[in-house]
Write a structure and sequence with these properties.
Elements: H1 8-11, H2 14-18, H3 27-35, H4 40-67, H5 69-72, E1 80-82, H6 92-98, E2 102-103, E3 110-116, H7 120-130, E4 136-142, H8 154-157, E5 169-174, H9 184-202, E6 209-212, E7 217-219, H10 221-229, E8 230-231, E9 236-239, E10 241-245, E11 251-256, E12 260-263, E13 279-281, E14 285-289, H11 295-304, H12 319-328, H13 342-347, H14 363-367
Protein name: Beta-1,4-mannosyl-glycoprotein 4-beta-N-acetylglucosaminyltransferase
GO molecular function: beta-1,4-mannosylglycoprotein 4-beta-N-acetylglucosaminyltransferase activity
Keywords: Membrane, Transmembrane, Transmembrane helix
Length: about 375
């Protein structure tokens, strides 16, 4: 008998019917039941905001990390920067005196040692710039990239192009270890140790000058001449270089410092590419990064060098994209500037400004401008761009 009270035993909660074995007609009610307890904001967050955040981090995580770098990494200790004096008509004795040094009775011997990958054009420019003042050129190449990929012996295959250097050249080849998944910097360090041994074979002695730099970090000839003639120079001196990207059309800054010159000391001097001194000689050369004649050379280096983790997506190596990047002066890896303050990061965002100046460049480029026009302003199209 109906007593005026609602009986829950027959219908119970609506979910007992619609979330159990209820009829199809209640399908919408089932959805409502399943979502009961969730408010609209939570649903939007789970279905829209959270996936969007995950996608953004996946696509732009590296940019986010670089942008907030000032929060988690402090700038390195400043260098003691040494002013650099030079003039064609100024005597070497006067130049040494301007730097606070004394002139020697005879110049030191100079060794230029590099690990070589595939930079045939930039190596030609480098060796022609340094030829008047270097006694021995030491080059080591491997059949492996730093990332463990097989590599042609580019220098050995193009050795005929360097006949002018043969009497002063010590060449070495080292077999790669081809260890998959290994940090590329381990292979790089392995090859640098081998270069130390090659220098000993070349006959380097105490107080000889040793240039340590990558092939595309080119000291100016007058800088090396100064250092070989002057006494009392620091035992290890880093060289400040003008940074260029893709060619000498895109000047970025003068913050390149990894190149260095050492007064060799047996048992102590080791070939390296990191900071080894607090002394920095101002305006001492050029660092032309990714300054290649062909798109194929860009792609090879992107796969081969120690920072290959920057190639996050395969389309980065699309030749049409690379050609577009070269002409616009944008970043090859779609990265933010590697700086330590928000001011510097924001200030360097976007394409590198075009420069129309070809003043104070390696003389060999200007003397052979037709051959090396791809390095000069206004010539961004590469030979194999199609």
């Amino acid at each position: 008998m109906y007593d005026g009270y609602y009986s829950s035993k027959k219908t119970d909660d609506i979910c007992d019917n619609v979330c159990g074995q209820g009829r199809p007609a209640f399908s919408m009610s089932r959805v409502k039941c399943l979502l009961r307890g969730f408010d609209l904001k939570a649903i939007v967050f789970l279905l829209v905001v959270l996936p969007f955040c995950i996608f953004t981090v996946y696509m732009h995580g590296q940019k986010i990390s670089y942008f907030f770098r000032p929060l988690w990494e402090s700038p390195p200790k400043p260098f003691h920067e040494i002013p650099h004096y030079y003039g064609r008509s100024v005597s070497m004795e006067s130049l040494c005196k301007l730097h606070g040094w004394k002139i020697r009775e005879s110049p030191r011997r100079v060794y230029d040692a590099i690990l070589f990958s595939n930079e045939i054009d930039i190596l030609t420019v480098r060796w022609n710039e340094l030829y008047p003042y270097v006694n021995q050129f030491v080059l080591l190449e491997s059949n492996s990239t730093f990332t463990g990929l097989p590599k042609r012996l580019h220098f050995a295959n193009n050795r005929d192009k360097f006949k002018f250097i043969q009497p002063r050249l010590i060449y070495g080849m080292i077999g790669g270890r081809f260890k998959k998944g290994e940090n590329p910097f381990v292979e790089e360090a392995y090859q640098r140790v081998a270069l130390d041994q090659l220098l000993k074979i070349a006959g380097i002695e105490d107080d000889d000058l040793l240039i340590m730099s990558d092939a595309d970090e080119i000291p100016s000839a007058h800088t090396i001449n100064l250092l070989r003639w002057c006494d009392d120079i620091p035992p290890i001196l880093h060289l400040q270089m003008r940074n260029y990207m893709y060619s000498f059309e895109f000047y970025t800054d003068n913050n390149s410092w990894r190149a260095s010159v050492h007064r060799y000391e047996s048992g102590k001097t080791q070939y390296a590419h990191y900071r080894q001194s607090d002394y920095l000689l101002s305006d001492a050369g050029w660092h032309c990064s990714f300054c290649f004649r062909r798109i194929s050379e860009f792609i090879f280096k992107m796969k081969a060098y120690s920072h290959n983790d920057r190639v996050r997506f395969s389309h980065y190596m699309d030749p049409r994209r690379i050609q577009d990047v070269i002409c616009k002066g944008t970043d090859l890896f779609d990265m933010l500037p590697e700086e330590y303050t928000f001011k510097d990061i924001i200030g360097k965002m976007g394409p590198i400004p075009h420069s129309h100046s070809a003043i104070h460049l390696p003389a060999y480029i200007l003397n052979n401008s037709e051959k090396y026009k791809f390095l000069l302003p206004g010539n961004c199209i590469r030979e194999d761009s199609g």
